[in-house]
Amino acid sequence: MDVSQPLDPLAKTALWTASMRAREHRRADRLFSDPLAETFAGDEGPKIMSQFEGHVQSGVEDPALAVRTRFLDDQLLKLDADGVRQFVFVAVGMDSRAFRLEWSPDVLIYELDRPALLTFKEDLVRGLHAQATAARVPLGVDLLADWTGPLLESGFDSRQPTCWLVEGLLYFLEPHERDVLLHRLTDLSAAGSRLLADYVGQTILNSPGMAAWRARMVEQGHPWKSGSDRPEELFVPLGWEIQVSAYGDPDADYGRWSDTAVAPGMLGTRGRYLLIADKQ
């Protein structure tokens, strides 16, 4: 039986991501280790990956997922070293950072996602007898509804600095859905909090070169719905100070990206970027 059947099309993108991380784990020059990824991907993940993947540079798989994962790993561990103890992984999917990263003993990680996906993940975790390296609170919620109440009821402390990880989510949201999400997590963010995310430029999202990709995503039931060429306009009015790194920049390369680095908003760019936002 295909254990991924209870998952809806959007939730199944988590299996796709896990499959790409499993492939990276198998590389001799891997940017990170993820021994749980292959099991998390199951049989469905590689099938989805093969349907969408293209060649970014000759002889090398699309490096974006590997670079994104390593970039965010580095940022999370830096925050841990700097004393942040409360982390919230928004739309966590099949992310295994609570198991594979070396966290400080008093770190607490909240994992938010759809109940069906988290139930599926928990069944796999139990089957693997996997041991988390940090205290972990899986919380099944609807991120388009009231998720802040359940989070607070689970012990989240809005008075202390929080790291929000919003990976692989924003472009699946309509602009108003994205804005509501950012407002809600901002309201729960004490001064000194940090938000880590990835996004895509609206210019590149609307470009003819993305038309086939977007059509396939729609056909599979998980379309990309929004982008932003000026991420500062989303975050600065909410009290966040942001840094933006394009894939291929010195801090978002790791020897994997051969294209010229470009800034968000420039016409004709790759248009994918990583951001770090600090709450003032």
From TrEMBL:
User: InterPro entries attached here?
Assistant: Ppm1/Ppm2/Tcmp, SAM-dependent_MTases_sf, SAM_mthyl_Trfase_ML2640-like
Q: Which Gene3D superfamilies match?
A: Vaccinia Virus protein VP39
What is the superkingdom listed in this entry's lineage?
Bacteria
Recorded GO terms, molecular function? methyltransferase activity
- Any idea which UniProt keywords this protein has? Methyltransferase, S-adenosyl-L-methionine, Transferase
The protein's matches in SUPFAM superfamilies, at most eight in alphabetical order, are given as: S-adenosyl-L-methionine-dependent methyltransferases
Its EC number(s): 2.1.1.-
Gene Ontology annotations of biological process type: methylation
Keyword hit for Transferase: yes
What is this protein's function? Exhibits S-adenosyl-L-methionine-dependent methyltransferase activity.
Family statement drawn from the similarity comment of this UniProt entry: Belongs to the UPF0677 family.
Classification via PANTHER family? S-ADENOSYL-L-METHIONINE-DEPENDENT METHYLTRANSFERASE YKTD-RELATED, S-ADENOSYL-L-METHIONINE-DEPENDENT METHYLTRANSFERASES SUPERFAMILY PROTEIN
Report what the protein is called: S-adenosyl-L-methionine-dependent methyltransferase
